[in-house]
UniProtKB/TrEMBL annotation, chains A, B, C, D:
Catalytic activity: myo-inositol + NAD(+) = scyllo-inosose + NADH + H(+)
Gene Ontology biological process: inositol catabolic process
Subunit structure: Homotetramer.
Gene this protein is translated from: iolG
Protein name, per record: Inositol 2-dehydrogenase
Organism: Pseudomonas eucalypticola
EC number annotated for this UniProt entry: 1.1.1.18
Keyword Oxidoreductase tagged: yes
C-alpha cells in the first residue's frame, strides 16, 4: 500500500522532500504539487521525473481526491492556512516549521485538531529523529545520569546574512532547541532571560551576536543556550545534560580522525543542511508510517504551539532585559 | 517503477533483507521467496505481512516470470549454484558472502558473468557502503595524507562459539578486510603471513586466538590486521591508514559521551549486527538503483574472487608459518 | 645560594609544602616552623627528618634572623595578621588562600605592601601555574581564537561535608575561578548573578547545590560557572573560551585510554588534591625564584583583593537573587 | 645533604642536565665538569653561573675527591670507558644511552658492576619515568586488561637528517621501545623480524623509511613497532597494549582542544625534546635519591645490555629479511 502525498511549496526544502519521498523512502509517492510559482513546480516534476499533477492552488491540492496526505513546505506565513485547510479536509499534514508565525496561530491549529477529534498534524522539527539526540534521550531515560539538573547547549552557525536580525536568533535558530529540549527532558519552560555578551566583530548592525538564553523549567532545571550565528568555525550543535549522578553529552558527528600538520583533528561541518541530514529521512518515514498506521507520533501541533509560546517570551526578554515568564496553558488530554 | 525481487533463503539475514526491501527502501518489493525449510519461508511472508509467493525451489524462483532480480541469502555452499542460475536466466543477483566457498567457484561465476556480457552480480560486502569507510576513502583519494604506506587494522569480536575454528578467522572474519582494504587503497595483495601471539585464555581448543595477518600489496603497502574474536570488550573495527603526509583513521561509531563513576567514556558496540546496520540499507538500495539504471556499481564477482584468492593464501599461511604469495590473475577489462 | 624559609601552619597543606621545599624543589630549605599546635609542628620536623627550629609563635618565626621568607599555611582567619607582620618585617611571604577572610582585610594588605614600596606577597592561587591553564592562555594570547566573548566553566566535586554551606560555594570553590579567569583573559568583573537549579538529592540541608554563577566583565565578556560540589562522578574542572574566530578548551588531565567492558574511556580524578598537584610545585618554585631574583611574579595581593571583592558580590547575589555590581577600584600603578 | 656531581660532556644534553641539577632538582649540585672541548665546558659553567671546577679529562673528574657521583653525557663511543672508570672508582654513574656502542661493551659493564658487588650504574632511558608510561604500566599491573597478548606501537619523527641511515632506525630510535617495552610488560624478546613498506618520498638514499619491526617475547606476546622518521606531521609516540580483557593505550600529551576553521583538534608535538621533557627531571631526581639512599632503582646496566642485544638482532633482521633469534643470557641474580 502506497500513500499518495501532495506537496505545497517546491522551493529548496520542498524539492528535497519530494526527492526523499520518491527515491529514498518506503511506502509513499508524490502525486500532487503546488507552488506560488507554478513554473517552478512544473520544473521540479520534470527534473525529478515523477508523475505528479501540478495544482493551481494549495487549497485545490488539499481537496484533490487522490491526495491522502499533505506536506506544507511553502513560505512560513502561509503555513497556518494550509494546515487548517488540511485539518478541515480530514487529511494528515506534515508542516515545516514554523507551524504558524504567531503563538495564537499555532493555538488555532491546536484547537482545530482537537475539534477534528484525531491527530492530523506533524510539525517538521527533525531533531527528535536525530540518532544522536535519540541516543542522548535513551541515556537520560535509563536513569543512568539521574535526574537532569542543568543543560548547557550551544547553537552555532559559521555566519548569517544581513537579513538575519536579533529576533531571528530566537525564531529561526533557538526554536529548534526550544522544541527538542522539552522533548529531551520531558519538561516545560517557566521563564526566560537573555544576556548579550560583547558582540563579535563579524556581526552586522541589525544583529546582536552572540546571545545567551537562560531558561528555567517547571521541574527547576536550568538551561543555558549559547546562540552564536557568526562563529566562523563551523555549524556546531552542543548539548550537555548534567544529572545527579553524571553527565551525558550529545555525540559529535562522525568524522575521520586525522594526524597531519602537527594537529590531531576531526572535521566540523560548515553547512547546517548536513548536520541532521539523516533525520529528515527518519522524520518523513515516521510520518508515512504514522499516517499508514493511523497514529501520528512525531512532534505535534501542541509541540509547535509550546515552542512558539516560549519563543515569544525569549523575544520579549531580548528587549526587556528581564526574566520573563513563559506561561503555557496545561496540556490538553488530547495530546497525552 | 518498482523492482520485483525474489529472495532465496529466509534465515536471519534473509528475513532482515526482506523487511528492508519491503518497509525501509525505495523502489523494490519482494514478490517471491524460497527456503530449504518451506514452512519457515511461509512464516516469514505471513509475519511480515507481505504479498509474496513461496516457491518450492530456488531454481523455480529464479525462473519465475515476475521475478526481475534475485537475492541469495541461503546457506553458503548453495550460493554458487544459485548465482550461476541467475546469470543463466539473465537476472541480476545480489549474493551474500561468500560468493562461493572456493576461489575456483568464484572464478566460475566471474567467467559466466563475462560470458553473459554484462554485470549481473553484486556481492554482499557492505563495508564499502559504510559512511565511515567512505569518508576514509574520500580523505585518502583527496591526497590529503599522501600515498598510503601502511595500514594498521583490527577486527575484534567479544566472543565466538565453539564451532568457530582457526581457519574461520580468515573466511568468516578477515574476509571483510580482504575486500574493503583493496577497495580503500585501490591495490592488490601479493603476499600474506600469519603470526600467532600468545593465545587468550578465553579461546577454545579448536581456535588459535588472536592472530595477526600481515599483507603486502602490489604497490608495496604493508598491512597488519589483528583478528581477535574473543576480545571480550566489544565488537570493534579499527583501520588506520599511514600516508606520506599524515594519518587517517576510520571514525568510531557515534556514541553519547558520559562522565560518570570516575570515567569519561563512550560506548563500544557488543553486537556485530549493529556496527554496519546502516550500510546494509545503503548496499541494497544501491543494488536496486543499479538494476533499475542497468548498471551495477557495488562489489563485483571479481571482488568476490579476489577476496577468495587472498583468503586461500592466508589460510595456507596459517598452516605453513611462511610468507605465502597471493597470485591474482590480472583483472579482466570487463571489470574496469 | 639557598633561601631560608619559615613555615607558619603545619597542617596537611603546610606539611606538604615543607616536603616540597625540602625534597622536590631547588634553592630553598625550611629552617623554621610554627603551629598553634606545637607538638604537631615538632612531629612534622621529626617525621620529615629536616633541620628546622620550632617557634612558639608565628610572630617570633617571622622575626627570626635566619628566616628570609615566610610561608603562611595556617588557619584562614589568621592569615591577614601574619602577612601584615611579614610585610612589616620586610620579608617576602607566600600566603595560602584566602589572603584575608574579608575584602577589607585584603585591602589592608595591599595598602601595607604599597607602603612598603616593593612586592612582598604571593597568594597561593595555583591555577595560573597549571600547565593546562598556561597552554590555554597561550592560545588566547596568540589571537588564534580572536577576542574572547564568552567563557563556559564548571567546578565540580564528587561530594562535600555537612560543614560546607551555600556561601562556601563562592569562598572555597568559585574563588579559584574568580582568580584564574581574570588572569586568563586579562579582564575585570563588573557584575554577578547566581541562579539555583533544581537541587541534587545528594546535597544536605545547608547547601543549595548546584549553583550557576553568571559574571560580566569590563570588556563585556559573559562567563557562566557551574559550581556543583556533590556531582558524584569526579573532581572535574572545565573551562571553554569562545572567541570571535574559534573556541579553546582547557585540556583534560592526561589518562590511559581503555577499551573494556563495552566502553572506550579515560579516567576522571576523584580527589581535588591530584588535579593541580604539579602546579603546587611550580608555584612554590616560582616564589623561590621570585624572592631570589628580587621580583615576585605570581598572584599578587591585588589579585587576592580582586578575587575577594568579586566573591563578596557573588555571596550577595546568592541571597538577593539580583544582578549585583562588582566594584573594584582601579588597579594601583604599583601592580602593573 | 647535597650530592656532589661531576658531569662529563657539556654538549646540548649535558648542559641541560647541569641546568636541571643546579636549578630544578633537589639534593644535588654540579661541582665538576669536563668536555673534550675545554672551552665549551668553561663557557657552560660561566653561562649558568654555577661553581664547578673544569677538569682536563673525564678520568681526572671521576677520581676527584669531592665528586660523589658521575654523569656521562659525552660522545657515545666514549661512554663505556667512563662508566667502567666510575665503577672502578666505586662511584655511582648515570650514563646517557647508549651504555656502550656494542652489546659486548654493555656486557663488560655488567660484569664489572657485578664484580664491584653493588649497583652503581643507571642508564639514561627516560621513558620508564614518563607519567604516561607509568600510568600505562599501573593499568597493566592491576590486571584490569588481563595478560598482555599484543602491543601495537609507533615511533614517528617529522624528519631526520641525511646522516641518519637505515640502521639508526634501530640504534637511535627503536632502542627506546626496546628498553621501555621489556619494562612495561616484564618480559624478554626472543625474535625479531623487519619488513619494509613502500618508502616515503620524503626519505633519502641511505634510509629505508618507514620500517616495521616485529618482535616476539618469551611469554609469546607479539609486538609491532612502526618506525617512521620522516612522517612529516609530528613527533608521535604510540603504544597500545591488547590484553585478554581489554586494551590500554598510552595517553596523548595534554593539549588545548580547539574548534576552529572547520576542525576540532588538539596539538601534536613536533620536537622530540618536548615529548618526555618532564621525564628527564624525574629520572635524574631518581638517580640523586637512589645514590643518596644507597639503592639505585632506575634502568640498570642489565637493561642497557638487554636493549643492545635486541638491537643487534633487529639490525641483522634488517639485512637478512629473516626472523632472527634474540638470545639474551638469563638475568644474573644480582639484577633481581
Amino acid at each position: 500500500m502506497t500513500l499518495n502525498i501532495g506537496v505545497i511549496g517546491t522551493g529548496a526544502i520542498g524539492r528535497d522532500h519530494i526527492r526523499r519521498l520518491s527515491f529514498a523512502l518506503s511506502g509513499a509517492r508524490v502525486v500532487a504539487v503546488n507552488d506560488i510559482n507554478a513554473e517552478q513546480a512544473r520544473d521540479v516534476v520534470t527534473q525529478l521525473g515523477i508523475e505528479a499533477e501540478v495544482y493551481a492552488s494549495g487549497q485545490e491540492l488539499i481537496e484533490a481526491g487522490n491526495v491522502q496526505a499533505v506536506l506544507v513546505t511553502s513560505w512560513g506565513p502561509s503555513h497556518e492556512a494550509f494546515v487548517l485547510a488540511a485539518i478541515a479536509a480530514g487529511k494528515p499534514v506534515f508542516c515545516e516549521k514554523p507551524l504558524a508565525v504567531t503563538a495564537e496561530g499555532c493555538r488555532r491549529i491546536v484547537d482545530a485538531e482537537i475539534a477534528a477529534g484525531r491527530r492530523l498534524v506533524q510539525v517538521g522539527f527533525m531533531r527528535p529523529f536525530d540518532q544522536g539526540y535519540r541516543a542522548l534521550k535513551t541515556v537520560i531515560d535509563s536513569g543512568e545520569i539521574g535526574a537532569p539538573l542543568m543543560l548547557h547547549c550551544a547553537h552555532r552557525n559559521p555566519h548569517v546574512s544581513e537579513a538575519y536580525g536579533t529576533g531571528m536568533a530566537i525564531t529561526d535558530t533557538l526554536i529548534h532547541e526550544l522544541d527538542v529540549l522539552r522533548w529531551l527532558i520531558d519538561d516545560d519552560y517557566v521563564s526566560a532571560q537573555v544576556v548579550f555578551p560583547r558582540a563579535t566583530r563579524h556581526t552586522h548592525a541589525q544583529l546582536r551576536d552572540p546571545q545567551i538564553v537562560l531558561l528555567e523549567t517547571a521541574k527547576g532545571v536550568r538551561i543555558d543556550v549559547e546562540v552564536f550565528v557568526n562563529c566562523k568555525y563551523g555549524y556546531d550543535i552542543q548539548c550537555e545534560v548534567v544529572g545527579e549522578e553524571g553527565i551525558a553529552r550529545l555525540p559529535e558527528p562522525s568524522s575521520v580522525q586525522l594526524r597531519s600538520a602537527a594537529r590531531l583533528s576531526t572535521g566540523i561541518l560548515m553547512d547546517w543542511k548536513d548536520r541532521f541530514i539523516d533525520a529528515y529521512d527518519v522524520e518523513l518515514q515516521a510520518f508515512i508510517k504514522g499516517v499508514t498506521d493511523g497514529q501520528l507520533t512525531g512532534p505535534s501541533a501542541w509541540n509547535g504551539y509550546a515552542a512558539a509560546v516560549a519563543g515569544d517570551a525569549c523575544n520579549l526578554a531580548q528587549v526587556s532585559g528581564r526574566i520573563e515568564p513563559i506561561e503555557l496553558p496545561s496540556r490538553p488530554a488530547f495530546y497525552n
